[in-house]
Automatic annotation (TrEMBL):
It comes from Streptomyces mangrovisoli. Keywords: NADP, Oxidoreductase. This is dTDP-4-dehydrorhamnose reductase. The keyword Oxidoreductase applies. It holds the Pfam family RmlD_sub_bind. It comes from the Bacteria.
Length: 294
């Protein structure tokens, strides 16, 4: 049965792929950009939900400038935490399922094995703290209709990201020094969009419990390993990519040294986890290459 989906932050890389996927599957979709809807305005949020009456609302609106959040945490919190709370409050009592997109930054990043969905959180950055506050707001306000979907290391054709940067730099740099002491899971926005679609449908059918889900690709690598794979797919020599440490790049916000997420939660919804990151990157690569070389 066709449902109505409302997507906030519709101008972003993930939202673009999600809207395209929903439309291709025949769902009724409404995409609201930052200019269309200020999620920090409770009245505007309530009005939007009342007008569109979505079955599923996916919150892709977020402050994602990780380093800037260190000195502008109050502003980041208004979007990442207060915005999520406003959306949850507007959905309460309407039957709308709210899918809140979150991040691996809610963890300390010092684990040695994948973080389970119920692992203890301990964000080390302002960005991570504000996203965790958003998670808590959704799960508390909507105990039966709030879904937190954590992801990480996103790339896609619809915006700037690490993979597209590597494609661009391969043409102009003889060698590249890339961080090899941060480990995570490169995740294609199209794969994440697919899981959001499946989760939303399962949620509206009453088959997916309201809880935390981890939506990252299978396997893991470092930024150095990802860059080498990009070079290989370009037909370039991967040895032109050289390993370095995060300490070589001083940045205001600490990055998780280990952001690998476990995927056991999907079993509760009857949905399989996302495939291995290498397989996804191979499929995504032609579109990424075309987008970067336009």
């Amino acid at each position: 049965m066709t449902s109505t989906w409302l997507i906030t932050g519709a101008g972003g890389m993930l939202a673009q792929d999600l809207l395209a996927r929903l439309a291709a599957d025949g769902e009724r979709t409404v995409g609201l950009t930052r200019g269309d809807l200020d999620v920090t305005d409770p009245r505007a949020v309530h009005a939007a939900v009342a007008e569109h009456r979505p079955d599923v609302l996916v919150n892709c609106a977020a402050w994602t400038a990780v380093d800037d959040a260190e000195t502008r945490e109050t502003e980041a919190r208004r979007i990442n935490a207060d915005g999520a709370r406003n959306l949850a409050a507007a959905c309460a009592g309407t039957g709308t399922r709210l899918l809140q997109v979150s991040t691996d930054y809610v963890f300390a990043g010092d684990a040695a094995s994948p973080y389970a969905e119920d692992a203890a959180t301990a964000p080390r950055s302002a960005y991570g703290r504000t996203k965790l506050a958003g998670e808590q707001a959704v799960l508390t306000t909507l105990p039966d209709a709030g879904y937190v979907v954590r992801t990480a290391w996103l790339y896609g054709a619809g915006g700037g990201n690490f993979v597209r940067t590597m494609i661009a730099l391969e043409r102009v740099r003889e060698t590249l020094d890339v961080v090899d002491d941060q480990r995570g899971q490169p995740t294609w926005t199209a794969d994440l969009a697919d899981r959001l679609l499946r989760l939303g449908r399962s949620a509206t059918a009453g088959a997916a419990p309201a809880r935390i889900y981890h939506a990252t690709s299978g396997g893991d690598t470092t930024w150095y390993g990802l860059a080498r794979e990009v070079f290989r797919l370009l037909g370039a020599d991967p040895d032109r990519v050289r390993p370095t440490t995060a300490a070589a790049y001083a940045r205001p916000a600490p990055r998780p040294a280990y952001g690998v997420l476990g995927h056991d939660g999907w079993a509760a919804a009857g949905i399989e986890p996302i495939r291995d990151w290498r397989e996804a990157l191979r499929e995504a690569f032609p579109a990424l290459l075309a987008a970067e070389r336009r």
